[in-house]
């Protein structure tokens, strides 16, 4: 911390701080995975401002916790005790005490935000893990966080290119268009890799309402306890990917894509120089993940690659993928 000392005629001394170093934490609770990240943020006083206005000069990641599968006690309830214990172990591994946290955010995203105890989860974790700006992320806010965390916003500023970032998680895909270091548009669609999950035998153990609706429109019967084969999963994934790519190109025309939209659609989508994907499914899109998690993630990623190639959209790889939202939460919220 740098200070300026000023003395007046009455010998009183005033200290003006020109820099502040904060320790920040971001917590992302998604429908597939949850993770935590610790960052240092250097703030510097804006010399052009007459008030005590500070700007972010530098951000650095101090510690990235492991990727956890989000624990559920039943289909509609996140297991708060198990989740809290996971994050407290991450604090211990980082060597950071709760009292050392200056700021941060708890973000609950996608299908997890619809669970019965979503608000309780946010309030409980915000109260126990430091000084937070706690929020349940709406789809547009999640899109913004992911775009910052993936590096799309900063890249649009440094290159002058227009970048569309799509964060594909377990229950939703959140879209941002970035121009000149700013978010120009956002949208979201209920397309994700964990709209259903199975056990090792292929028996459905988790089925989100959206997954049921998509299957019903395709004439596929799904329910907890039924087995689903690989071909049926690919059919579901192909339909979801088609709806997603449709949403990337403007107002969707198909009934399926319109049904899946969570926000008003994108308006003008011309002039996109780069298309990047973040989120858990992106790890499969860019082939940086090989482990199976008994859900639609891999099949959806494969279908997205096919549909994007067919569309001619210019696919690029972002700086961060599965951790994009939590990085955005910890450094830019």
Topology of helices and strands:
Layout: E1 3-7, E2 13-17, E3 19-29, E4 33-45, E5 54-64, E6 68-69, E7 72-74, E8 77-78, H1 80-94, E9 103-108, H2 118-128, E10 135-136, H3 139-150, H4 152-159, E11 163-168, E12 173-179, E13 182-189, E14 196-198, E15 204-207, H5 209-217, H6 230-248, H7 255-260, E16 274-278, H8 280-285, H9 297-311, H10 324-332
How would you characterize the overall build of this protein?
By secondary structure, the protein is an alpha+beta fold. It has two domains: 3-137, Nucleotidyltransferase, domain 5 (2-Layer Sandwich); 140-323, ATPase, nucleotide binding domain (Nucleotidyltransferase, domain 5), CATH 3.30.420. It has helices at residues 80-94, 118-128, 139-150, 152-159, 209-217, 230-248, 255-260, 280-285, 297-311, 324-332; strands spanning 3-7, 13-17, 19-29, 33-45, 54-64, 68-69, 72-74, 77-78, 103-108, 135-136, 163-168, 173-179, 182-189, 196-198, 204-207, 274-278. Strand 11 (163-168) and strand 12 (173-179) form a beta hairpin. The chain is globular, with a radius of gyration of 21 Å.
